[in-house]
Amino acid sequence: MPRAPRSAPRRRIEVLRIGHRPGRDPRLSTHLALAARALGAERMYLSPPDPELSQRVAEIVRRWGGSFEVIGVEDWRARLAAARGHVAHLTMYGEPLDRALPRLKRTRSWLVVVGGAKVPSELFAMADLNVAVGHQPHSEVAALAILLDRLLGTPGPGPWPGAEQVIVPQPRGKKLVAPPRAGSP
Ligand code: SAM
């Protein structure tokens, strides 16, 4: 389904990834950040911090545009308590996404929390919603991607402000161009 027109209320989605293991999970947590960015989240908080990962993602944002950032947090409980919106925890034990979706759509700002190898049980009580994308174990990347797609719709090719390059969708092959300059016809 295409993304909602611009007149629709703008949603603010932030992601909190807890249980990251620097040195063991860099690829998985990087993919989580890239999926969050590409599918419409504004930023990802990463606990514990991993400055190298934040730097790698910043380099991708520099080339591909937007203002997404990965912010390291020492204390994920404090981050969660400071959330500006409501908190949705992705867990296979939660209520089905289809059932939770109307409530997810009623609130403009969400902090979406995803776990790592082990999830502290207190998180279930701290969240406003515990949401399952199916009730089988799979991946934080898959769960986040499906939630964002259902909540925001699938993004089109642009615009990504500040991008050095943009993709021109093709039935075959790859086409990358420099984005048009502001003010050019
Ligand atoms: N063993 C962990 C636990 O204690 O629940 C789950 C580990 S799983 C590899 C990592 C994360 O993926 C989970 O914390 C959750 O955020 C997400 N996840 C995995 N399967 C999911 C599902 N079916 N629905 C929603 N989220 C899921």
List the helices and strands and how they pair.
Blueprint: E1 12-17, H1 26-38, E2 43-46, H2 51-64, E3 69-72, H3 76-81, E4 86-96, H4 97-106, E5 109-114, H5 122-126, E6 129-132, H6 140-152, E7 166-167, E8 176-177
Parallel strand pairs: 1-2, 1-5, 2-3, 4-5, 4-6
Antiparallel strand pairs: 7-8
Helix pairs in contact: 1-2, 1-6
The structure holds S-adenosylmethionine (SAM).
S-adenosylmethionine binds next to strand 4 and helix 6.
Question: Could you please describe the fold and organization of this structure?
Answer:
With 185 residues, this protein is of the alpha/beta class. It has one domain (12-177): Alpha/beta knot (3-Layer(aba) Sandwich). The chain contains six helices and eight strands, in the order E-H-E-H-E-H-E-H-E-H-E-H-E-E. The protein has helices spanning 26-38, 51-64, 76-81, 97-106, 122-126, 140-152; strands spanning 12-17, 43-46, 69-72, 86-96, 109-114, 129-132, 166-167, 176-177. The strands form two sheets. Strands 3-2-1-5-4-6 form a six-stranded parallel sheet. The protein has a two-stranded antiparallel ribbon with strand order 7-8. Strand 7 (166-167) and strand 8 form a beta hairpin. Helix 1 runs parallel beside helix 2 and helix 1 (26-38) packs parallel to helix 6 (140-152). It is globular and about 50 Å long. Bound molecules: S-adenosylmethionine. S-adenosylmethionine is lined by residues 90-92, 114-119, 132-134, 136-140, 143.
